């Protein structure tokens, strides 16, 4: 999702135009939609309800496909949800057609940003998220007490839950938990292990499955003019959100 960046918006618009103009493009073949005379690519321009966060947010999908027999007035082969609504187009969604458009050479996006309650719904505990957010400088020890209170936990619970998660998810590395820095580093590694081995969690984080209705979770990535079926990154990092100093606590998954 590149919403909010000029280049990202341009690339989404260009993909919509390309698909609608070039109906024999190999992109349609990759989508498995060669019979496409009444199919159209549409740019997602509206927020969608997330069943995980319980709020209306930007979905994972940037571009999706619809089927309609109505006459659509395209703007140089471009159409978005607002235009569909304005033209009162009757259509049906082509399921599993959600495409995420990644800005070329950009790493300034996030795969997922989870607040305290969203993290709990995804991972089933507060403790791992709190540990990921730990301050590691000894002079900031009091900040971790505030952090623990916000995450509804304490250090004793954090250490116990990390031990339990090691067993539950067959995490084979030794746990290093002698200080706050080690607790944080261990929590990040453990969270990555869980994401890599639990399909339900990784599908939510990288594709939006479980949060959004079809086709607003993604089945394809479009990057550098190539459409890919693999939506899972080979590398990613887990870190704290930028609002931690303001007590806006989030765990962020990013490139």
Describe the protein in words.
- This protein has 255 residues and is of the alpha+beta class.
- 37% of the residues lie in helices and 16% in strands.
- The protein contains nine helices and eleven strands.
- β8 (220-223) and β9 form a beta hairpin.
- α8 (180-197) crosses α9.
- The longest helix has 18 residues, at 180-197.
- The chain is elongated.
- The mean pLDDT is 94.
**Major beta-sheet overview:** 3 strands, antiparallel
Provide the number of structural domains: 2
Tell me the number of helical segments per DSSP (H or I, 4 or more residues long).
9
- Class inferred from helices and paired strands: alpha+beta
- Biggest sheet, spatial arrangement of strands: 1-4-5
Helix content: 25-40%
Task: Write down the overall mean pLDDT.
Answer: 94
Strand fraction band? 15-25%
Provide the gyration radius in Å: 21 Å
Secondary-structure element order, N to C? HHEEEEHEEEHHHHHHEEEE
Low-confidence stretches: none
**N/C terminus separation:** 13 Å
Principal-axes geometry comes out as: elongated
Number of strands: 11
């Amino acid at each position: 999702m590149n919403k909010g960046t000029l280049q990202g918006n341009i690339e989404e618009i260009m993909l919509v135009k390309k698909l609608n103009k070039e109906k024999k493009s190999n992109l349609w073949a990759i989508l498995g939609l060669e019979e496409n005379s009444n199919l159209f690519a549409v740019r997602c321009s509206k927020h969608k309800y997330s069943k995980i966060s319980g709020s209306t947010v930007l979905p994972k999908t940037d571009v999706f496909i619809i089927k309609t027999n109505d006459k659509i007035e395209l703007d140089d082969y471009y159409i978005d949800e607002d235009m569909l609504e304005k033209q009162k187009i009757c259509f049906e969604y082509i399921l599993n057609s959600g495409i995420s458009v990644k800005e070329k050479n950009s790493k300034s996006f996030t795969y997922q940003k989870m607040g305290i309650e969203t993290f709990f719904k995804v991972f089933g505990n507060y403790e791992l998220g709190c540990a990921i957010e730990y301050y590691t400088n000894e002079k900031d020890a009091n900040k971790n007490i505030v952090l623990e209170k916000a995450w509804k936990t304490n250090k004793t619970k954090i250490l116990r839950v990390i031990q339990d998660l090691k067993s539950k998810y067959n995490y084979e590395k030794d746990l290093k938990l002698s200080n706050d820095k080690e607790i944080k580093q261990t929590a990040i590694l453990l969270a990555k292990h869980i994401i890599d081995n639990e399909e339900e969690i990784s599908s939510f984080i990288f594709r939006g499955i479980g949060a959004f209705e079809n086709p607003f979770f993604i089945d394809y990535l479009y990057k550098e003019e190539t459409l890919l079926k693999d939506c899972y990154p080979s590398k990613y990092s887990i870190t704290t959100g930028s609002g931690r100093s303001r007590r806006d606590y989030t765990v962020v998954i990013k490139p």
